[in-house]
Design goal:
- Helices cover 33% and strands 20% of the residues.
- By secondary structure, the protein is of the alpha+beta class.
- Strands 3-4-5-6-7-8-9 form a seven-stranded antiparallel beta sheet.
- The longest helix is centred in the last third of the chain and has 22 residues.
Length: 395
Amino acid sequence: MISLLGNDWYEPILQEIINKFLDYQWDNYLSVQVPDEYIEEINGLTAGGIAQGLTKNNIGKLITRGIVLANFPGDIPNINLIIIDEINNPTINQLDDKLVDQVVEKLKSSWSGLTCSMYGVWGSRTENNRLFTGRNLDWLKSTGISMYKLVTIYHPSNGYSHATIGWAGVWGALTGMSSQGLTVHEANLESNDVTFRGFPWVLRLRYIMTYASTLTEALQLWSSTNNTEGYNHGIGSAYDNKAVVLETMASNTAIFYDNDERELALGSPREEAVYRTNHGYDDYTIFHYMWNDTNAYQNSLKRYNAFPEAFDSYESSKQTITYVEAVNITAILGSKGENLYQCSSPYTAGSNVLSVTFDPSNLIAYSAWENGLGNDLWTPAACNTYIKIDFNEWM
């Protein structure tokens, strides 16, 4: 958490300002719709920290601050849209406007260019017709968090075991897979239809993995809970042997299956595949999208088009997609600079910190993390070694 906010986080005044803002958002908005089981987990983390003598920092608060940060918009000034929503839906406690301005100014310099990507492919395109899914997290690079890589496996007493892949201190699912072969994914979708009066996505994705074994069950759970920010989400299911994409904003969820006709006009959909970067194709999504006619939109289009190019290339060469090709597709889309297809340092314009491919019918993941600090030494996840993780032993 400290490294995500820059070195001067240690300055007591800045630390107090940002902590106060994050705690306010959690206590008054983002925690309200979180199921009790996750609140109990967070309380348990606090108690465990105290039992180990970690009394200087409240472990639970560090966790909830991370959840709030994960729910921030890609463009930090758009926090003001959330504040407007909160002004219109006030709690008993009111937030000082000056505090918001201070937080925005603090984070603007480092919180930029946040992009992600995800996909699913199956059927005649793949080995044994089985589903592969992939996810890239292009976020804040070279923060030092790479030293704390973590795969976490949960065994809820009343749900399905599931694993999340990320780092210590980031509690929830940046991406993950359940014992039922359900995979979950996310990519930013900058929107002016936003709120913190919903279920924070990193915990919501865990909720889906805990209680859903099929796409039908996953989508039912999704519709029974509330959105927050603009995000593209992906859900893959080994049982259904396919994946779907969800374009979500505070007041709308648009579900896309393969070769969706809404995508035909402006995009390049394909049969037996779904994929997204950082824009969408539903009318509601396009209307509320904040990056229309921007360089960020053009960058998202470029990366989006790399998906059908890859699928078409394999199809034309009669190459069946195995886990090797699936990892390759994931790696191509990870942000490493202007050239998607080349790993060449220094990666000044890169931001790929986590890159994961799932083979859910076999409960196997292939994961890579960023490595190193500083532009000269930093390497994006997609240019590092992918580690095979076989979850059959644990789930």
